[in-house]
């Protein structure tokens, strides 16, 4: 009996010392890995966000059917990501695309201007806004790969549910395009509108894109007709038949003089239907060889750049913060109410 009492007297003080430490260890938050801002947003608002995001109706005008379909937000985003980015891309790139697509529609809802959509709709399902594919269209396009591609897209969308990109508390104009020439473009050097978060940044990963460099051939007659000029060799320019007047920060053509007229790089690209405003010209007899680098307007997030960043180990948050300078990640419910 005395032995048990002795053990009790010894054990009790030890337990009194160890118990609080054990409780602190069991219930203290882990510091092993800090949550990213978008993870923090999700953890803080997850129950409300998930339900609210599904209940927020998006009215999509289906161009071919000429009807308006109402879809839950995240269902709509799945259809956009499926249409706008290859499902084979890295998961972190798909997450970045999901956030950009969600930001685009949330910005439209907040602005409340739908006069560019037939009555009753909020957004088109074409490149005029964002391309959207419904389930039937995805099944038709993907065939026997539908199951895994669908699950991959769904995983990317659910992992970022409710998260949008903001600048000074407002959803950004989250523009994106396929492939850069190695750099993105300042917004004011393509659209003549300065936007603080749409600045030129390096994107060396795009060289892996199949659309990185392409050459098209036009006859001199075609070029003259499309530009509305007459090609001449200028003696003042040592016989040159065109002159690059300026280049942009993103190494695209800023201004070009040809046939006695001056065009912006964007005008030249659009008149000739070129892949990019990053181009070179070569005259061979009565043919003009036009070599472009990149595919798209070049402003905002490069999709092939995003995929390259993901392959190099960057996560979705790092990707969007690279292509959209100075932005934050925020829950959409703080901006638009269902």
UniProtKB/TrEMBL annotation:
InterPro entries: Bact_Sporulation_Assoc (IPR051922), SpoIID/LytB (IPR013486), SpoIID/LytB_N (IPR013693), Spore_II_D_firmicutes (IPR014225). Pfam families: SpoIID. GO terms for biological process: sporulation resulting in formation of a cellular spore. Residues 62-167 form the Sporulation stage II protein D amidase enhancer LytB N-terminal domain. GO terms for cellular component: outer membrane-bounded periplasmic space. It comes from the Bacteria. This is Stage II sporulation protein D. It comes from Brevibacillus parabrevis. The gene is spoIID.
């Amino acid at each position: 009996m005395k032995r048990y009492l002795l053990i009790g007297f010894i054990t009790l003080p030890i337990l009194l010392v160890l118990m609080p430490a054990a409780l602190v260890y069991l219930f203290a938050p882990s510091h092993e890995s800090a949550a990213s801002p978008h993870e923090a947003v999700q953890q803080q608002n997850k129950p409300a966000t998930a339900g609210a995001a599904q209940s927020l109706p998006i009215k999509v005008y289906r161009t071919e059917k000429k009807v308006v379909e109402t879809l839950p937000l995240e269902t709509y985003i799945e259809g956009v990501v499926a249409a706008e980015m290859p499902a084979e891309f890295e998961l972190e790139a798909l997450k970045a695309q999901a956030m950009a697509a969600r930001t685009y529609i949330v910005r439209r809802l907040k602005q409340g201007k739908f006069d560019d959509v037939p009555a009753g709709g909020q957004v088109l399902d074409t490149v005029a806004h964002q391309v959207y594919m419904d389930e039937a269209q995805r099944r038709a396009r993907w065939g026997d790969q539908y199951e895994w591609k669908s699950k991959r897209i769904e995983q990317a969308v659910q992992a970022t549910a409710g998260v949008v990109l903001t600048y000074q508390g407002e959803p950004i104009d989250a523009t994106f395009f396929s492939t850069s020439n190695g750099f993105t473009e300042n917004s004011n050097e393509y659209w003549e509108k300065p936007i603080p978060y749409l600045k030129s940044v390096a994107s060396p990963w795009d060289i892996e894109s199949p659309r990185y460099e392409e050459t098209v051939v036009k006859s001199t007659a075609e070029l003259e007709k499309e530009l509305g000029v007459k090609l001449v060799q200028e003696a003042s320019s040592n016989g040159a038949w065109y002159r690059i007047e300026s280049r942009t920060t993103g190494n695209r053509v800023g201004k070009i003089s040809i046939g006695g007229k001056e065009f912006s790089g964007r005008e030249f690209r659009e008149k000739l239907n070129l892949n990019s405003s990053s181009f070179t010209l070569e005259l061979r007899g009565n043919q003009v060889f036009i070599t472009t680098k990149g595919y798209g307007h070049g402003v905002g997030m490069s999709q092939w750049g995003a995929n390259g960043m993901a392959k190099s180990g960057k996560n979705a948050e790092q990707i969007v913060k690279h292509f959209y300078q100075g932005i934050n990640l925020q829950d959409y419910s703080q901006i638009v109410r269902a």
